[in-house]
Amino acid sequence: xxxxxxxxxxxxxxxxxxxxxxxxxxxxxxxxxxxxxxxxxxxxxxxxxxxxxxxxxxxxxxxxxxxxxxxxxxxxxxxxxxxxxxxxxxxxxxxxxxxxxxxxxxxxxxxxxxxxxxxxxxxxxxxxxxxxxxxxxxxxxxxxxxxxxxxxxxxxxxxxxxxxxxxxxxxxxxxxxxxxxxxxxxxxxxxxxxxxxxxxxxxxxxxxxxxxxxxxxxxxxxxxxxxxxxxxxxxxxxxxxxxxxxxxxxxxxxxxxxxx
Amino acid sequence: xxxxxxxxxxxxxxxxxxxxxxxxxxxxxxxxxxxxxxxxxxxxxxxxxxxxxxxxxxxxxxxxxxxxxxxxxxxxxxxxxxxxxxxxxxxxxxxxxxxxxxxxxxxxxxxxxxxxxxxxxxxxxxxxxxxxxxxxxxxxxxxxxxxxxxxxxxxxxxxxxxxxxxxxxxxxxxxxxxxxxxxxxxxxxxxxxxxxxxxxxxxxxxxxxxxxxxxxxxxxx
Lengths: 260, 221
Description:
Strand order of the largest sheet of chain A: 3-2-1-4-5-6
Largest interface: A-B, 81 and 67 residues
Distance between the termini of chain B: 19 Å
Oligomer: heterodimer
CATH class of the largest domain in chain A: Alpha Beta
């Protein structure tokens, strides 16, 4: 067991403790104030319009493997998928999900089936609404393009792990005149999204989508916990700068170097 | 009375295995560097996950084929779906033929499959990359029309500055531009990247904890 392992474990426990604390505080009646994010405000309106007009919502979960570090972005997309189905369940055309990873495609179908069953409309579940569109970045993009080009779809949520190939999807959505909202955990993907989609989610806004789409109290609590830990990190970084400025960083370095 | 055992069982399994893998990550090695029991269990579960991911690939291909068969039946973009299924069948056939040849000859021989990748998949991917370059240029041009604000102007300005600063002629004619480019890449970009990555890391930990506590169940319920 090393010092950095203990530090990591302590940080994880702190995070867990904060989430539990904010869930309890939330249940006690304290309402969390979320800053308005224009993309989610537009999305809520778009879901309402899609239900009224009978058009279809398309949610792409990206091509992140469920065994890799990018899995978290895909899981966020799955939470959003569940929330979107609950909101758009009364529409004529049920939402469709596309992915570029086989494991994620299985989870998407499972999430779709579970969400329909949870709101007692299990018969509306279409096994073809959870699709694997391609296994490589460009085959995934090419396969997803046909879903975006489909005249039935009107709103596209791209939430997951996307690289620069996402520009092709954003471009197609814009040419169809559809609303596109997208977020990725990949830096190159985020830079491309900023230029190519109507409503990009920058930084960790992707991870806040559950809270904004009313996916559950834990999503709001975890967002609050993230903010607290962020301030802790800022304090640590500033303390590090101050120690360096005072010239005591070398002593601390040698002290930490002696630890396992 | 119909009892539903599936949901609590899958949730308990996910939480149990997740906890072992997490604890194995922190306490998987002793101070002397040897694997502890948690470390052994973590490796066992991770190897199992990799095998399951490979099995998922087969299920994924079946899903891909099923979706496109459905599209052909409903005559929705049937031409593309037909080409996809035909390509899938041909590629799988070539792969199986190469596997059989490898077993018969006793040495690795995937020349035909290699030919398919080199002469079909690679050119298609490269042409899509070229389309992407044009698409990105077009998107950058449209950005100011769609979202005219300070950030967009800084975004486009920085792109232009980095492109101009990387030109070899500029390095001799206007060295300050090269220095400015180096400063942007070494200071501003690194600082911004670290900030964004820290946010993503926090979001990833939060998502992991939600799954670990069973409040998020991406495996259905």
